[in-house]
Amino acid sequence: AQSVTQLGSHVSVSEGALVLLRCNYSSSVPPYLFWYVQYPNQGLQLLLKYTTGATLVKGINGFEAEFKKSETSFHLTKPSAHMSDAAEYFCAVTSNNNAGNMLTFGGGTRLMVKP
Amino acid sequence: EPEVTQTPSHQVTQMGQEVILRCVPISNHLYFYWYRQILGQKVEFLVSFYNNEISEKSEIFDDQFSVERPDGSNFTLKIRSTKLEDSAMYFCASRTGGSGNTIYFGEGSWLTVV
Predict the structure, then answer these.
(1) CA A72 to chain CA centroid, nearest Å
(2) B41 contacts in chain A (CB < 8 Å)
(3) Do the beta carbons of residue B34 and residue B90 sit within 8 Å?
(4) For the segment B38-80, what is each residue's pLDDT rounded down to a tens digit?
């Protein structure tokens, strides 16, 4: 079974500050890892994903995440927060062994950006 | 850019009524999914559908739930007799073949059972 833990259900940063959203996963097989963002009253939009290859992946809107196998982590970062980044962020895991490739989601982290 | 579309965006129904949530996945996609998100909780997998049959389902997806792809474009989720606890946002999603490919989500259908 796979699982995802997102530490911190709410994170508040000032505009221009570093954004760090934490994600740890559990998987008995090599994972595929995803970050999705959900803006108010909208669906889930893919920010970035890791499947194989380079462990530092870059996504949309200036976000990036690094897959660290030794730490079973896939933390999401952005050097400088913008007001428009305020949203809920979900980390998710699946794997090649997963017949339907369905995603297991973490509980989400709501990012608030203060002016 | 192609997108997954869902209807209705919001539905209110009485307990015990049947509900059908509709989805049009991205046209060249092969795998189809339903997820749900109860208010304030995490997004949960319900069911995956491939090659005209269910490939995986969670324990949430009991006999009250069914899925269908009736005409090669629509993908529907039916809840036979709704309960209060079925109130949630239901997301349809789809992807192409191949492991690790991105799952694209629709904007969701809010279901409120009263």
Answers:
(1) 13
(2) 107
(3) yes
(4) 988 889 999 999 989 999 999 999 999 999 998 878 999 999 9
